[in-house]
């Protein structure tokens, strides 16, 4: 089944969290994307579909005043299409964009638009990938992390000849609490993609922050993890 995406969903330009943004005959849509036959991939695809359906139904229950408020806030925002061009977004699109992350992080969908303040991008991080561990260690974290969660995306293992596969990175684990100690990723990563090996030793990683109260997300940071002995 295909789901019509919001042009505001920058995280769905290409592939993300088990779905692929595509365009056919001038119409943009989101379709399921399977990386493998693993149960983990099916789980993440199901999560995305469930959230979209939940939010779409929820929007239909809003009052006319609430819808007007979302439309008003949307006039101050801009989105990005599947092809990367900037454009204005509707109140419905903004409702989906913000509430997607609120719900993904365990919150209840907002019925009234929040006051947007922006989210600072995370620091650089050190990635360590071996046969027994896969970790991400942030160089620093904000002084106040009360409403912040760290979202980590990664590509499936890539061969040595691949120089850029960041567009293939998708979410593979639950939102993380920002810390300056090593964050263990291997169990979730291997469950979704399988363990990297000598033939496919590169993993392209992205990470960003999400405000769990407003649904705002920060800019992304990127880095390459290479398998070592």
Fold and architecture overview:
- With 229 residues, this protein is of the alpha+beta class.
- The protein folds into two domains: 2-104, no CATH class; 125-226, Immunoglobulin-like (Sandwich), CATH 2.60.40.
- The chain is 24% helix and 26% strand.
Describe this protein with a few key phrases.
single chain, 229 residues, alpha+beta, Immunoglobulin-like, 2 domains, 4-stranded antiparallel beta sheet, 4 helices, elongated
Overview in brief:
The protein is an alpha+beta fold and 229 residues long. 24% of the residues lie in helices and 26% in strands. It contains four helices and 13 strands.
Order of helices and strands: EEEEHHEEHEEEEEHEE
Q: End-to-end span in angstroms?
A: 42 Å
DSSP summary, beta strand count? 13
Low-pLDDT segments, ≥5 res: 1-20, 22-44
Radius of gyration: 18 Å
Task: Please render the helix and strand layout as text.
Layout: E1 2-3, E2 15-16, E3 19-24, E4 27-32, H1 39-59, H2 64-74, E5 78-80, E6 86-88, H3 91-104, E7 125-129, E8 134-138, E9 148-154, E10 170-171, E11 183-184, H4 186-193, E12 202-211, E13 221-226
Antiparallel strand pairs: 1-4, 2-3, 3-4, 5-6, 7-8, 8-11, 9-10, 9-12, 12-13
Helix pairs in contact: 1-3, 2-3
């Amino acid at each position: 089944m295909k789901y019509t995406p919001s042009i505001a969903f920058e995280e769905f330009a290409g592939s993300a969290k088990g779905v692929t943004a595509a365009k056919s005959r001038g119409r943009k849509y989101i379709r399921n994307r399977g990386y493998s036959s693993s149960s983990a991939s099916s789980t993440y695809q199901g999560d995305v579909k469930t959230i979209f359906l939940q939010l779409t139904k929820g929007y239909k229950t809003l009052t006319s005043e609430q819808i007007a408020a979302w439309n008003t806030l949307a006039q101050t925002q801009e989105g990005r299409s599947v092809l990367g061009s900037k454009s204005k977004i509707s109140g419905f699109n903004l409702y989906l964009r913000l509430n997607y992350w609120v719900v993904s992080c365990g919150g209840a969908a907002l019925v009234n638009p929040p006051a947007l303040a922006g989210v600072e991008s995370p620091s650089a991080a050190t990635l360590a990938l071996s046969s027994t561990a896969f970790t991400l260690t942030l160089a620093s974290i904000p002084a106040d992390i009360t409403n912040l969660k760290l979202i980590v995306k990664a590509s499936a293992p890539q061969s040595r000849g691949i120089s850029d596969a960041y567009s293939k990175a998708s979410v593979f684990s639950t939102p993380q609490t920002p810390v300056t100690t090593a964050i263990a990723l291997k169990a979730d990563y291997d469950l979704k993609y399988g363990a990297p090996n000598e033939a496919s030793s590169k993993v392209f990683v992205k990470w960003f922050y999400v405000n769990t109260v407003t649904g705002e997300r920060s800019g992304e940071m990127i880095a390459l993890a290479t398998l070592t002995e």
